[in-house]
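Tutorial, part two.
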Amino acid sequence: MPSLAIAVTAGMPFFELAVPCHVFGFDRLRPPPDWYDLRVCVVGGREGETNLAGAWFSTRTPYGVAELVSADTVIVPASADVHGDPPDELVDALREAHRRGARVVSFCSGAFTLAAAGLLDGRTAATHWMYAALLAERYPAVSVDPAVLYVDHGDVLTGAGATAAIDACLHLIREDFGTEVANSLARQLVAPAHRPGGQAQYIETPLPERRDDSLAPVLHWATERLREPLTVADLARHAHTSPRTLVRRFHAATGTTPMQWLQSQRIARARELLESTDLSMDRVAEIAGLGTAANLRRHFTRAMGVPPVDYRRTYRAARVA
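Running the prediction step on this input gives:
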């Protein structure tokens, strides 16, 4: 029976803690006879004390750092504060567990704790897309991929945010017990056994507020004309500046080029149409400014990690549910 320890620290978000407790818990309908020996381990609290996990919940468990270090798999569900440093006791425990040969796993912001322990240095890692830039800034030795649901290096696995914890848990079960067990559990959870694409399909591309001293006016102008074959010269003409100056200001304001930004807005428009209408792929492509259905399929799949037909099917199923 493989031992699996979940680290709990004060202030930890509850959802990412609840997912592995539920998935790896002993209440499965027909778990394999060698199912996980699950232990929820408090780090930073004294024996017998309650350790807070979110604003409304507490965790009381007889297990602590010793059980965490000795486990076959150690899970860090999330970090209480992505801007602060994780508890030294937890960082030391993760290093020791990994040195002993444990598989170390994080969900969502838990990647910050693994990074603080040095377990992600020189590796690609996943976290919630909202935290990706901050993780890369705080830990430059880590290559952060904001588009994937999880990254598995064998000894270290990092998962993206929120419900991606379910994807990562099912992946672990698939690795440990096989596809049949993982698929059976996925059906019990009413979750896809393997979700196509990555979290790129959930990343928002908000438009900046309209301000006279910014590029917002020309950005708003462009979003109203996405179906037109806009060029950098067109945008510069509307902004009353030269193309070279526009490119420089554009990069400073958005971090990308005018044409890359236009493409992201066209993909965002296509997403809206796929989610909210039954328009044909050709019509979606035309309105979004992507030309043909083939062009839509190529660019959408590249950006979102999933074809437009599958993307629509996913959101249609969510509306029915």
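The mean pLDDT is 85. In part three we will examine how such features are distributed along the chain.
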